[in-house]
């Protein structure tokens, strides 16, 4: 019937269960048709109630579609809950990933700073005296050499070293170190990031 209808809305309404019911009623083989007018009427009544019709092949997907059509409000509410839970799970996962990244970043920085202090240990350095200026120079050299693949951490540490060099009045070094930090941050951090602003402020102070 839906294929013969000239009206699009009517064709859409007939498509599916009504097509199948009429098709079953018109089968050539008697054993494939409804056994009685009452059985045909029952299938129409099932259609009107929104229940699965007997003419359709039974399947979980078909029963689920009919259930959803009969219970639109409940299914819509359940779907909204599922979407909300999925969104919450996504946000929680995203926040967990950020927290892990920040923790890894903090661990990297902490371990590197600890290694700098270990380098000042006479047992490792081979010298009983290491001035603050020498320690800062050692830190800058190691950051340049060992943290090329971690530009964000390198920039953060170089700014700390540069600030300390400025406090020691090592003006040339204190000017050069933030410049290197900004170069490291250029490809990985936005121009309005805190590290970039801090580096520019340090350069301005040295000027």
- Biggest pleated-sheet summary: none
Number of helices: 10
Low-confidence stretches: none
Distance between the termini: 86 Å
Number of E-type strands: 0
> Which whole number gives the mean pLDDT?
80
In short:
Helices cover 74% and strands 0% of the residues.
Give the SSE map.
Blueprint: H1 8-14, H2 17-25, H3 37-49, H4 60-70, H5 72-119, H6 122-125, H7 132-146, H8 151-167, H9 171-186, H10 194-206
Helix pairs in contact: 2-3, 5-7, 7-8, 8-9, 8-10, 9-10
Q: How would you characterize the overall build of this protein?
A:
The protein has 207 residues and is an all-alpha fold. 74% of the residues lie in helices and 0% in strands. It has 10 helices and no strands. The chain has helices at 8-14, 17-25, 37-49, 60-70, 72-119, 122-125, 132-146, 151-167, 171-186, 194-206. Helix 5 (72-119) crosses helix 7 (132-146), helix 8 packs antiparallel against helix 9 and helix 9 runs antiparallel to helix 10 (194-206). It starts with 7 loop residues before the first helix and ends with a helix. The mean pLDDT is 80.
Keywords:
207 residues, single chain, mainly alpha
